Amino acid sequence: MSVGISDALLCFTNSEINRLLGLCEHVHDLTTQLREKSDYEAINQEKVLTFDRIAADTQLWRQKLDSYKATIEEREETIANLKKEVNDLQKRKQTNADFEDSSLRVQIATLQNTLRDRDNEIKHLKLTLRQVRDKLIPGQLSHDNRWRSCSEDIGRNLSIGKSHRSSSPKKRCTSPPVRDDTLSPPLDVEYLKTKIRTLTDRLANVQQLLVKRDEQIVTLKKVHDKRWLRLKHLQKQYRSVKDELQSYTDDELLQKQTKNDYYYGKAIRKTRSGCSVCHNQRQRKQTGTNRKIFKQEDDDNIWNEVTKLRRENARLTNENLSLNEKIDLQEVEINEQTIVIDELRNEIRLLNDKDEKSQLKTSSPSINKSNDNQQRLIEELNKKLYALENERTCLIFEHERLKTNLDLCIDEKQHLIQQKKQTTDEIKRLKLRLLALQDQIHKLKRNNQPINKKTSTNTSSTIKKRIIKKKSKKSCLEMLLDQNQSSTFIDDLQNESSVLYRTSPPKFDRFDINPWRRQRHRTCSLCDNHTQASLMKRKTRSSISSTVPKRKYGPLKKNYNNKIRLASSCHHDSYSHHIRKPSIPSTAQKVPTRIGAMRRRIEQLEMNLADANEENEQLTQRLSTTLSRINVIKTTNQRLINECDKLKTDHFTQSTLSGQENRRNDSVNSDGGENVDNLHIRLKNTSFDAARQRKLNKTLQTDNETLTKNLQSLTDKLTHTERDVASKRSLIENYKSRLSELETNLNRSNEKITNENDEERLKSLTETMEKLRVSVRISNNQRTKVYKR
After folding, report:
1. Backbone angles phi, psi at 531, to 5 degrees
2. How far is CA 279 from the centre of its chain?
């Protein structure tokens, strides 16, 4: 009764909540339509309709609450009845307290004493009855059949069944069980022992069931309280919607009276509290501070955001309520399932006890044959069930293994993601190093500008000679490639600063005969050495140089600015005169840079991917084996069901036999039918467990598919990164070759070209350098896009 009432309550409350949610959505749609409409008469009509609907809903709510209270009262009555039954069982248990409190040995001793006394009394009664019958009717009864009624065992026919109890006393007298006097006392003791044990087990099982019923009642009470709170929450939402509608109507009336522009801030700003049953409303007055705040923030955008947030809050609360309801329903179902499982276990125990009793009984040969056949069938079915249970345990273990493999795959995925993050961090560090090198180059340029001005005024003869010692300055790529893998970022910066800020050599080393050691002061093509201001200076210089006439007026009439530019570009002070080191061979001689480390990491990632693929193949093989086993279990279940059907048909055929044999075999057949039904239920349970394991295996297959997809995506990303690294290497080598060629060309041009052709060649070189910078920037942008993807 309690389960049926709980199901009715659950259906009732779910229907009510769905209706309330439908009302909330309907009200929300009405509010949107009211904002769009401009006819106030239509709004008033819709208002009237909504209020009529609300009144009808309130009446329905009252009716439903009355019915809900009635169900609660019925439930309390059932609880009271259950409590009474519990008290009665406890009283009955107190009557059997002597058997429960004393130990088994004491019970056995007392039973043996009572049985001895009983046997003595029976013997004494036999003797007295013999004497009486010999006196009354001598010579009519034989010696065998004389005391057959006296040799009947007391309580022997209790376990046969209700069919024998309901039969007439004449039948009992005509066909009593025959037994010897020698076997009666020990068998009676064993029978009483088993009877006491079964009674104690039944009492314990009933107590456990009552405890679980109490727990179920407690859970139902909790669910009831939660639903009551949810109903209150829904009533609050209903009141808030009603208050908003009434605020709209009041604002319409005010607008008709004042004929001012209408805006929705007023409607939302009003807060009213009212009861859902009675329509008495009380308006709350706002404080002066809040009014000032709303005057400052009285915009449509703000109020729209507020309404959006309120709607989201209401939606989230409704979702939370629905989730809590689902959780409560699952708890109730779990309790019911546990109770059903315990009941089934008790029935199985009863069946086992009956089987033990049937073994102790001595029956006719025909009954023994039928019992033996049925017991064989039952044993075979039990063996099959045992095999199915073993397979089920194997499947459970395999399911746990698959779970562990899934966890391992997830860990490997996280490890790959961490490695990817590390590679991105290293790329960022390299970019930061390039930026640091750019800053150092800017500082060097700033330090060289005033010195260049001094040399332009004082060294007019040096312009003609052009045989000056240059500094052996490296490019940014060379310095990055020359760095060792073990050096840290700070050590690299210190080394770079020590290379860049060296002291100038003595004056007698300025003029060197070797022209290949001379290097022009230049910038790096990969790093942006100049800021926006320096770029603007270059543009202005190029514009000035383009406006000045070049060769029309001859070499003597050139602009003074061009001389300064030539002096600053071709000649430098003693600060920048050092011996130049070759760039390309130095990189070839040293240890492989971080590009080699990246290669190693990519190889490790490929190995990890190969291992993951192998594990995925193993998992797919295991899944295929589990599916095949499930199919085998299906076939076995079908065979067992067919066998059960055959047994039922056999029982029906046996019912058409003679009346005497059917009467004798009624009790045995009923027990066999119950056993077959229980076995059929067990088979259904095993089939249900197999279906559940199929679902779990399907979920595992989906998880494996997602993992394989993720692994494929990671492999694609790794291939993209390898391609990017190869393209970067090729670009770096090309830029190195171009830079070396440009340097050689510049050195040769410094030796051969005269003052007249310097400007044109410098322009061409600057253009080529700018093109290279543009190409480098484009490549950097492409790299950033690839990394973002």
Report:
1. -85, -175
2. 47
CA–CA distance, 79 with 221 (Å, rounded to integer):
12
User: What's the pLDDT score for residue 546?
Assistant: 42
Q: What's the number of CA atoms in the CB half-sphere (13 Å) around residue 770?
A: 10
What's the CA gap between 146 and 152, in Å, rounded?
13
User: In the 8-state DSSP scheme, what is residue 157?
Assistant: G
The pLDDT, as a whole number, for residue 93 is: 64
Residue that the structure tokens 């629905």 belong to: 322
Cβ 306 vs Cβ 268: under 8 Å: yes
Q: Tally DSSP H helices, then E strands, for the chain.
A: 20, 2
Nearest CA among 90, 336, 75, 347 for reference residue 213: 336
pLDDT at 386: 77
pLDDT reported for residue 453: 53
Residues 6+ apart with CB under 8 A from 131: none
CB 612 within 8 A of CB 412: yes
Residues of the chain with pLDDT under 50: 1-3, 5, 8-9, 12, 99, 137-185, 260-297, 364, 455-456, 459-477, 480-481, 483-592
| CA-to-CA dists, residue 31 to 7, 255, 710, angstroms | 36, 18, 46
pLDDT tens across 211-235, in order? 887 887 888 888 878 878 878 877 8
**pLDDT value for 563:** 44
Q: What is the 3-state secondary structure (H, E, C) of 736-767?
A: HHHHHHHHHHHHHHHHHCCCCCHHHHHHHHHH
Cβ contact 16:64 at 8 Å: yes
Please report the DSSP string for 395-409 in residue order. HHHHHHHHHHHHHHH
Q: What is the pLDDT of residue 315?
A: 79
pLDDT tens-digit profile of 34-77? Answer: 666 555 666 677 777 877 877 787 778 778 778 777 878 887 78
- How many Cβ atoms sit within 10 Å of the Cβ of residue 443? 13
65-80 burial: b if 16+ Cβ within 10 Å, else e? eeebeeeeeebeeebe
Cβ 749 vs Cβ 761: under 8 Å: yes
| C-alpha closest to that of 422 among 609, 605, 613 | 605
Strand 272-274 versus strand 281-283 pairing type = antiparallel
Give the angle 647-651-655 at the CA atoms, nearest 5°: 165
Please check whether residue 669 is in contact with residue 654, taking contact to mean a CB–CB distance below 8 angstroms: yes
Q: Give the pLDDT of residue 78.
A: 78
